[in-house]
Amino acid sequence: MDKSDPSFADSFLSVHGGEDRNKYAQSLIPPIAQTSTFVFNGVADFEDFKAGQRGGYEYGRYGNPTQRVAEEKIAALEGAEDALLFSSGMAAVCSVLLAMLRSGQHMIVMEDCYRMTDKFCRSMKKFGIEATFVKAGDMEGLQAAVRPETRLLFSESPTNPHLHVLDLNRLVSFAKENSLKLLIDSTLATPINQRPISFGVDLVIHSATKYMGGHNDLMAGVVCGPESLVGAIREFQSVTGATVDPHTAYLLIRGLKTMALRVRQQNETALELARYLEGSERVRRVFYPGLESHKDHTIAREQMRGYGGVVSFEIDGSIDEVKQFIQALKIPQYAPSLGGVETLVQHPATVSHYDMSKEERLAVGITDELVRYSVGIEEKEVLIKDIECALSVL
Ligand SMILES: Cc1ncc(COP(=O)(O)O)c(C=O)c1O
User: Which residues are catalytic?
Assistant: First the structure.
């Protein structure tokens, strides 16, 4: 990577991307346009607006200037032509799938994706859209799943919670050969660690609630890609209304400005923590793509600039011992979500996957012993010491 190339200067893009230097009232920071509607200077002005003779906004559901700054910033970071914000990551996932597919069509979904994405894809059957699930990275399974009516392939990379890293070059070739649109949920990577569009991926989705917002204080989602596709999704959103509100868009802009700093530190901490855990006799297995022992390490090293802030691992003990370990941790809060400045820990078997039977959970690799740890920005030495103390109670 050439550090003087502005297209890869993450903090330059995070701070300045999407921002006009001359803002309202010479404000340094993008103002919050806290308005639901926009006014026209009479009938002729509205006719000019409709004819595209002047820019601007019409009504909050169709867009807002604060939202637009955040969208252009994210598009710059992803190297995408356009981006569109939503009220949550799930609003983005559901809206994009509904906008892209219609009754009678079929999609392929890579397993080990966020539980609610999995749930929504299965529920699309009621709209006449079928989904086939294939194990993350199983290229033969992928080929076997293709039908004449298949239109789309959806995967996370890295996946959640096992942190499989998909070979984006192979997925792009596969999608092209089979005339499929390829969507990647890149939430766990962020554009700081990976830019799927540069590999030829069609659309990139994020839960902006996570690393982009970065402070566990907002809900938002985003889709990035070519203007033609994002524009069609924007039309759909203008009807369904899953838009982000202007104040949230402002919080997101604020969070994005420090994303590169946060994510780089989270990468560094997570790698060190994963190495520590790998060396502990109280830990059976560690899932982190930055470890040489991770099955996708080679792909991750080739296509990512950092390995992210989530580490999953299995305690070598009973479910009660896992609970004892989590209880003994002093720093992470016990909560779902990831990617913020606060370190969070969760136990997938009893939190994110609690409504599945043990057999169903085991089939997707969610063992009783699995712990998902999302590092925040606390110093790595402090977090490792805390884990060391918690493991010593076992
Ligand atoms: C990878 C991934 N995608 C999408 C989502 C959904 O995002 P949100 O919670 O913002 O709706 C999540 C939430 O945890 C996630 O982890």
Answer: 61, 114, 185, 210
Residue 7's pLDDT band (boundaries 50, 70, 90)? low
Q: HSE of 373 in the Cβ direction (CA atoms, 13 Å)?
A: 32
- The reply to whether domains 6-257 and 259-392 share a CATH topology is no
Work out the percent of the chain whose per-residue pLDDT is above 90: 93
Nearest CA to ligand 1 atom 7: 89
pLDDT tens digits along 63-85: 999 999 999 999 999 999 999 99
Any ligand 1 atom below 6 A from CB of 267:
no
> The CATH number of 259-392 is which of 3.40.190.10, 3.40.30.10, 3.30.310.50, 3.90.1150.10?
3.90.1150.10
What does the radius of gyration of the chain's CA atoms come to, in whole angstroms?
22
What percentage of the chain exceeds 70 in pLDDT?
98
- Quick: pLDDT tens for 127-163: 999 999 999 989 999 999 999 999 999 999 999 999 9
Instruction: Write out the two tokens for 285.
Output: 């297995």
391, 370 Cβ separation under 8 angstroms = no
pTM greater than the 0.70 cutoff: yes
Secondary structure (3-state) at 1: coil
Please report, for the chain, the start and end positions of each structural domain, with discontinuous segments joined by +.
6-257, 259-392
- Strand ranges for the chain from DSSP E: 82-86, 106-110, 130-134, 150-156, 181-185, 203-207, 221-225, 283-287, 310-315, 333-334, 344-346, 370-374
CATH of domain 6-257: 3.40.640.10
Mean pLDDT of 317-333: 96
Distance CA 376, CA 380 (A): 9
Report whether pLDDT(2) > 70. no
Tokens of 325: 């370990």
Which of 113, 207, 252, 374 gets mutated to test ligand 1 (max ligand atoms within 8 A of its CB)? 207
DSSP state of 59: B
Q: Which of 187, 351, 353, when mutated, tests ligand 1's pocket best, judged by the most ligand atoms within 8 Å of its CB?
A: 187
